Automatic annotation (TrEMBL):
<protein>
    <recommendedName>
        <fullName>Chlorhexidine efflux transporter domain-containing protein</fullName>
    </recommendedName>
</protein>
<keyword id="KW-1133">Transmembrane helix</keyword>
<keyword id="KW-0472">Membrane</keyword>
<keyword id="KW-0812">Transmembrane</keyword>
<feature type="transmembrane region" description="Helical">
    <location>
        <begin position="38"/>
        <end position="62"/>
    </location>
</feature>
Length: 80
């Protein structure tokens, strides 16, 4: 795994952890047991994988099209 992929994975894990810490843990803290821990761990893995995939597709698309170096970030499909 190269440094870029490791950075993307770390960012994805941090984002998933923050999302779960803000949304699920305050509600689930009182009833936290082994089953709920497994569910939260599965949610963490799923959110990390989805965020990592989204980052990978986005950054690879920018790298392949060359828009990253030009600084061209269009939010629409329209050619200007």
């Amino acid at each position: 795994m190269n440094a870029d992929r490791a950075r993307r994975l770390a960012e994805a894990a941090a984002e998933a952890g923050i999302l779960l810490a803000v949304s699920a843990l305050p509600i689930a803290w009182r009833t936290l047991d082994a089953r709920l821990g497994v569910v939260l761990a599965g949610m963490f893995a799923l959110l990390t994988a989805a965020t990592y995939a989204l980052h990978t597709v986005t950054f690879d698309c920018l790298r392949l099209t060359g828009d990253r170096q030009r600084g061209k970030f269009s939010y629409t499909q329209r050619k200007e």
